[in-house]
Amino acid sequence: MQKRSLFTNKLLPYLLVAPQITITIVFFFWPASVAMYQSMESQNPFGLQSRFVWFDNFVDLFKSPNYLQSFWVTAVFSAAVAIFSLLIGLYLAVQADRVVRWGVVYNTLLIWPYAVASAVAGVLWLFLFNPTLGVLAYGLRQMGVDWNYLLDGNQALGLVTMIATWHRIPYNFLFFLAGLQSIPRGLVEAASIDGAGLFRRFWDIVFPLLMPTTFFLIVVDMVYAFFDTFAIIHQVTQGGPAGATNILVYKVYADGFLGMNIGSSAAQSVVLMVIVIGLTVIQFRYIERKVHY
Amino acid sequence: MNPIRWLGAFLIAALVALAAPAAQAKTEVVWWHAHGGALGERVDAMVAKFNQSQSEYEVKAVYKGSYAETMTAGIAAFRAGQPPAILQVFEVGTATMMAAKGAIYPVYQLMADTGEPFDPNAYLAAVTGYYTDTEGHMLSMPFNSSTPVLWYNKDMFRKAGLNPDKPPRTWPELERDAKKLMASGGAKCGFTTAWPSWVNIENFSAWHNIPLASEQNGFGGLDARMEIANPTLEHHIAALARWQQSKIFDYGGRTNKGDSKFTTGECAMLTESSAGYARVSKESKFEFGVGMLPYWPDVKGAPQNTIIGGASLWVLRGQSPEVYKGVAKFFTYLSSAEVMAEWHQGTGYLPITLSAYKLSEEQGFYKSHPGADISIKQMTLHKPTANSKGLRLGNYPQIRVVHYEELEAALAGKISAKVAVERMQKRDNELLEQFQKANE
Are B175 and B253 found together in one domain? Predict the structure, then answer.
C-alpha cells in the first residue's frame, strides 16, 4: 500500500518542513562545510593566520602511525561494544519476554542505565575501578590482579568497553523486546506443535524474524561506539595509556581542542564524517530492503 | 540533535542576558582561570577582597576547568569575538600565546597605556624570564608559579627506621629508602609522580643541566628542535620502568592524578609541584615533609636548578579602555606584597615578587613552616644556564601528551627506554615543525 498525503496548498508543506531544514542547515550543513574548508588549512590557534594547504593535513594523518593506531583501537572498541551489547541485550530481552509476573518492573530496571548520561556513567565506574580509590579495584588487587589501567592498555580498553557496553545494553534490550513482542504468537505456537524445542524455535523462527532489528542495531551501535562514548573516554582514560583508548572521535577533540591543531582536527572530523555516511548508507540499504528470510 | 534542548538553551541565554545589565553598575573585568577545589576558594577570596577594596571595578573570576580547557575556551572565545579580559594560561602555552600577536595585549604595554606604576624588576627573575620576550618586555603577568619538589610521608619514614628529617637527596638514595619503606614502613609503593613529563623530562633536564631542545630550549627561535633522545634521560626512564616492576615507583596517571596515591598513604613519596601544598595538607592524615628533587649523582653539573611550572595571566584584546584600566589596577593589587605573600603561604606557589618573599620571611613563615622555602632555594640553587632557564616551545600541550604516551608505553614494558626517547624526539619534532610552519 502506498501512503500519500494530499496538500492543496502548495506552500504549506515547505513551511512545515522549514524548521527542520533550517536546523539541519544551521547545525549540520554549515558546520560540516566549515570543517571541510578548515581541513585544507593550516591555521594558527587564534585564527589570525591561515594558509590553504590542499590535502596536506590528510597526507600527514595517514602517514602518522598514531592515527592508524587510533583507527585500529576504534575498530576493536566499537566491534566489541556492538557485539557484547547486542548479545547481552538479546539474551535479556528473550528472558524478559518470557517473564509473566512483574514484567514491567524487570523491564524498567533493565532500561534504567539508559537514563544515565555517558559522562556520569564514566564517573560511576571510575569510582569502582580507580586503581587507588576504587572499591572493585581494591577487590581485584586482593585477588592478586595487578590492576592499574592507567598503565596497562588492555585493562584500559577492557574497562571503557565494559562501561560503554553496560550503557548500551538497555537500548538494544528495548529494541529486541519490541521485536520479540511483534512476532506473531501463532508462528511460535505452530512450531511448538510441530515438536520444535525452545532452542529450535528461537533459532528457526524468532531469530530470523529479529534480523531487521539486529541489522539496525548493529549500525546504530557502531555509530554509538564511534561518537557517543566520547564522555566515557574523557572521564576514564583520556585516550591513554599510550593511546590504547584513543578512539578517533577522542583524537579529534584532543588534537583540536587541547592541541589547537585545527587543520588536522578538521581533517580527522571529515574522515569521521565519511565513515558515518558510509555506515548510514549501509543501514538504509538494509533497512529499505527489509532483511527477510 | 534535539531542537527542544536548543530552544531551552536559547531561552536561558536570553534570560541571563536580560537580567545581567541590572547588576552592572561597576565595570566588569572577567578573568577565566583553572583553579578548582581548595585553590579555587583562595582565588575567590582574593578577588572578593579586591572588589571590596574599591568601587569602580568588579572582577569576575570564572573557573573554566583544567589548564588546557581554560586555554582552549579562551582561544575559542577570542575567535568568536567574546574573549575574557584576563586569561590564565599554563606555562607550556606561553609560546602559543606569544605567537598570537594580534590577540594579546602585552602587560608592559597595558601598564604603560593605563598609566599604572609598574616595575618589572620587582618580580623574581627566574619567573619573569619565562614570560619576557627577547627585547626584555614582560608580556604576561606571572601569577602562580611553582617548581617540583619531593614530598614524603614522615610517619612512614619513622616506621621504617629512617630519619624523618632527612629525605633522600639522590635517586640511588631514594631507591634504597623506598625499599626500606616498603619492607617495614607500611608503604605499598615507594614513590609516585604528578605531572610525569614536567617533573621527569622538563625539570629533569634543567636539574641535570642538559638541553631539552636546541636554540636554548626554544628561547632562540621557532626553529628549535628537541634533543631529548640523550643517554641521561634514557637512563632515568629505564630506571623508572625498572622500579615500576617492583613498585618502588608506581605510575599514578597524567596531570596531577598521582597525588592521591601519596595522600591516601599508598606511596611513601611523591614528586609534585610545591603548589601541591594546598591539596596535600588538606587531604593527608599524616605528617609530611618536603625535600629537593632527587638527582643522579653521576651526572656532571647536577643539581643545577629547576624550572617553573604553573601559569601566568594574559590580557586579551577586544575590551574597552575602561576594562583595561580595571585589569591594570587588579594586577597591581595581585602583585602587592600582602596579597602575594598570603597566596604563597597558603598554596605553596612561589612568591612572585621579592617583596612578598621578604614579607614572608619577616612574618617568620619559613621558620614555622620548615621546607616551605625549599622550592625557592631549589630554583635559585645556581645561576640558570641555557639549559635551565625554562622552555619556549610551540605546540607544547600536545608534546606533553606525546611524552605521556611514550612514557606509559615504556613503564608498561612495551618499549625500551631508548625507543621511548627516540619516539618522543621524532613525534615532538613533527609538532615543532608544524608550529613553525603555522607561525612563520
Answer: yes
